[in-house]
Specification:
Layout: E1 3-6, E2 29-31, E3 36-40, H1 55-71, E4 78-88, E5 98-107, E6 111-119, E7 125-136, H2 138-141, H3 147-150
Antiparallel strand pairs: 1-2, 2-3, 3-5, 4-7, 5-6, 6-7
Length: 167
């Protein structure tokens, strides 16, 4: 699927923060079907049991994908997670290429619902989540936060397509 544009990364977010030494540093791409996608790997620092990623890190990535799906249409919209229902289908490995996808399933003036998935390179869904957010302005989420200084990295790369072989 064709990449339309790239989203910004933050400084310290555990998922997208470029200055966080323990972060995933995941890039996010706006896709032609109005979804958001990422190609990333968890690291051994993100493990629960040996060779498996901690469920909290998996959930954090799904949550990030769900909200970033909103940013495909409008980067000025922020939200706070109200509800997240995660289904862990198969172990999520670390140190392996993974593909995340988020898409909006419902949106109105106050709320957004998203579906987010993490798949392996074969297209097998390893984890997925249905997520509900309440829309909020920046000053309602974090006092003193300047979203422009926090979401400050736009790192260009040569990714033009992300293909997910679904089975």
């Amino acid at each position: 699927m064709k990449v339309i544009s790239k989203q910004r990364n933050s400084r310290m977010c555990i998922i997208c923060g470029m200055d966080n030494p323990l972060g995933v540093k995941a890039p996010f791409y706006n896709m032609e079907d109005k979804s958001v996608m990422t190609v990333f790997s968890f690291r051994k620092e993100h493990q629960s049991y040996p060779l498996r990623t901690h469920g909290g890190m998996i959930t954090a990535m799904l949550d990030e994908l769900g909200m970033r799906a909103v940013w495909v249409r409008d980067e000025s919209i922020l939200g706070v997670t109200m509800d997240i229902s995660v289904r862990f289908r198969k172990p999520v490995p670390y140190d392996e290429k993974l593909i995340g996808k988020g898409q909006i399933t419902f949106e109105n003036s106050m709320f957004v619902k998203s579906l987010a998935t993490i798949s392996n390179e074969k297209g097998e869904v390893l984890a997925e989540a249905d997520i509900k957010y309440i829309k909020r302005k920046v000053d309602q989420i974090a006092t003193g936060m300047d979203e422009h200084s926090e979401m400050c990295y736009l790192i260009n790369d040569d990714i033009k397509e992300i293909n997910l072989d679904s089975k």
